[in-house]
Amino acid sequence: MSATWITAPGSVPGSCAGARFYILPPLRRPASGDRVPTPASFRRSFPAALFVAVLSMAVLAGCQGDGKEFDMPGSPERILADSRKDLKSGNFPAAIQKLELLEARYPFTEPAKQAQIDLIYAYYRNRETESAIDQADQFIRENPTHPRVDYAYYIRGLSQFEAGTNWLERAFDVDPARRPPQEARSAFQSFQLLVQQYPKSPYAADSQQRMVYLRNRLAAYELAVARYYMKRGAYVGALNRARGLIEQYDGADSVPQALKVMAEAYRRLNMDDLAQVADRVRQENLSPDEVGATGKSKSADSDAWWKIWN
What we know:
Layout: E1 4-7, E2 20-23, H1 39-62, H2 76-89, H3 92-105, H4 110-125, H5 129-142, H6 149-163, H7 167-172, H8 182-197, H9 204-232, H10 235-248, H11 255-268, H12 272-284
Antiparallel strand pairs: 1-2
Helix pairs in contact: 2-3, 2-4, 3-4, 4-5, 4-6, 5-6, 6-8, 8-9, 9-10, 9-11, 10-11, 11-12
């Protein structure tokens, strides 16, 4: 017997707007060949039925409340002003409620347009990164020529930037280069668009600094993959990764280490001439800060480049 999920129609409290109820289809009369349930089978199915009943009551109890959606009287200017007070005081959930109400109630007014921008910031500060990114995307799509569209790009980049790290990594100094850098790529693209399209934006300078960090982050991931291939004995794969790092992220902090990986991979493949070339290029491109008193290069891992923004 199958079951379906349906969404309850009508107005529901804001916290339960997405509530769904588990609906069983009607029982059918057993056919002549069907097995008739016995008392023993009822005893076996009773715990499962009890669990479903308790779970349903818990869901319904969580949706109980005063049955009223958030509402606030006043003009759009009044609602916007009150939301600004919440933003300044750090009460971001209250600001989000008012800004969402303003946008829904007065969708074609100037305060509603400003509410869209403020919502991007409120979501970001409330650590709702996905909502901040979606709100920024919507604003950019609907207002490509707005004078503050650069701000939407900037907060979108910050949200993607924050999504690429978590508090556990920061607390234990974990190198984020060991994780696939999807968020880092997205953040880099957002900051890059801002810098290219709005070079005079007040957010361009900070975006450029974050791009340097993200570029090192992306290069470090490629280096981590190349080193993994070396450990697995996949020397051709390690060469390709290291070469791609150098070509795509020339000047990144991981380039000397990528050349070192290339030299070692060439030696393992009995290509000593190419290994010597990689070693020579690496030594020629080391900066004074990367060379210790003995003339040997420092380990790129000791620089802990990822701590710059933590």
